[in-house]
Specification:
CATH class of chain A: Alpha Beta
CATH topology of chain A: Thiol Ester Dehydrase, Chain A
Shape of chain A: elongated
Strand content of chain A: 35-45%
Oligomer: homotetramer
Number of domains of chain A: 1
Radius of gyration of chain A: 16 Å
Largest interface: A-D, 22 and 22 residues
Amino acid sequence: MMDYDYKLELKVRDYECDMQGIVNNSVYMNYLEHTRHEFLLGKGVDFAELAKNSVNLVVVRAELEYKFPLASGDQFWVGLNLVQSSKVRFDFLQDIYRCGDNKLILKAKITGTAVNQRGRPYVPDEIKGLFKSEKE
Amino acid sequence: MMDYDYKLELKVRDYECDMQGIVNNSVYMNYLEHTRHEFLLGKGVDFAELAKNSVNLVVVRAELEYKFPLASGDQFWVGLNLVQSSKVRFDFLQDIYRCGDNKLILKAKITGTAVNQRGRPYVPDEIKGLFKSEKE
Amino acid sequence: MMDYDYKLELKVRDYECDMQGIVNNSVYMNYLEHTRHEFLLGKGVDFAELAKNSVNLVVVRAELEYKFPLASGDQFWVGLNLVQSSKVRFDFLQDIYRCGDNKLILKAKITGTAVNQRGRPYVPDEIKGLFKSEKE
Amino acid sequence: MMDYDYKLELKVRDYECDMQGIVNNSVYMNYLEHTRHEFLLGKGVDFAELAKNSVNLVVVRAELEYKFPLASGDQFWVGLNLVQSSKVRFDFLQDIYRCGDNKLILKAKITGTAVNQRGRPYVPDEIKGLFKSEKE
């Protein structure tokens, strides 16, 4: 298992499960987003505040590998690492594990950028300070 | 403030907010359902297990009073009382308060019943044991 | 069946169904909201545009009677009437019927108001023009 | 623009938009799933019916490129092609375009398999018959 900069523990809610009795595929995107925003908030970067000021953090690409489904009653945790992937892009490497047995549920790479008031992508200084340095 | 049989603390997730910047009205139904299921689970009544055995707990009526909206970053708690309202129905009285200042956010009465394999409404014994006795 | 000012036909999407194999209770709130917004838009009242201008249409109360569940594959229509219920409030009477057999699925009364930039409730003139006159 | 085996036209619903005033990233997964299920249903493959019989169509991988956001009022269409990608996997190539100007909104590759009652992945005959032949 990787080392993670940040971890968030959550629990499946029954309304998130679909007729197959497992968490619907789209809901993992919610888990991942919430984890990113909590991570950022803990670092002093408030997604909602930025949006109000017309600095929009946006996702430009998402890759998800579904390994095993979560079901009703499951507790799980999301691990997150943030790396810069280009001049104007950053990747959130996010993995979901079931609590208890640490079974791997999902691996994701969510690529984001920020768009300023004039619609130009850039990496805000607040985000730059969060990148895992290569030596660590 | 009322006394509650059960309380659950949660936090607003940004994807639950809509373009008005506040939690969408439908999402409170999610909060309320999750709280009911957690309450029941704590009492040994597993909604998912029951559904698998074709005993379906169903909502027949919902009344919600929206007092004040939740927004990004808000923590809140849901208080719950369960009372029998008729031979085959029970009411979940559920109120949502913002943490910190205990501002009242929403008052709800969710009326449920159980439907057995033959589609007949009834109150399962597991649920009956949960009603707040009148003298308390 | 009542006469309705407006009708919208929709179809159940599988992700809207939960582990009971039926549309989750909260999703009907989505159907009702979408129908209200489409009705308003058809009358020239744009919810999103109003929100951008800090005129927020808000729900203050919701009553829902769940009569029969919708399931995967079901088509349904939502009927809507709008009436003024007080000086600053208006009621959307909204019923959902399954297509084909017109089986009644849900009856709802959604009470709304508008809140202006200073947080005061009122009924905007654009809304007033939409009320069903009593004589009709 | 590619040729598509199947197209579905939909409209953004306001509750699908988040505080940035645009459709939330997770909602595109809903659009894509609904389009796949409608495509399959039109070919006689009923996702819900299969699930009831413990044949579960599952997503094992998703790649999404977010090109431009959808917003309130937007109509859009989803184009779909289905190709076999390995012995036990198939890819849904799904692109979303805004109606009117055919602006590209999202490109996705959703990789699925089917899991039988014993949990083994395979491609059901009903699905095999749907693959675009290479010569077309």
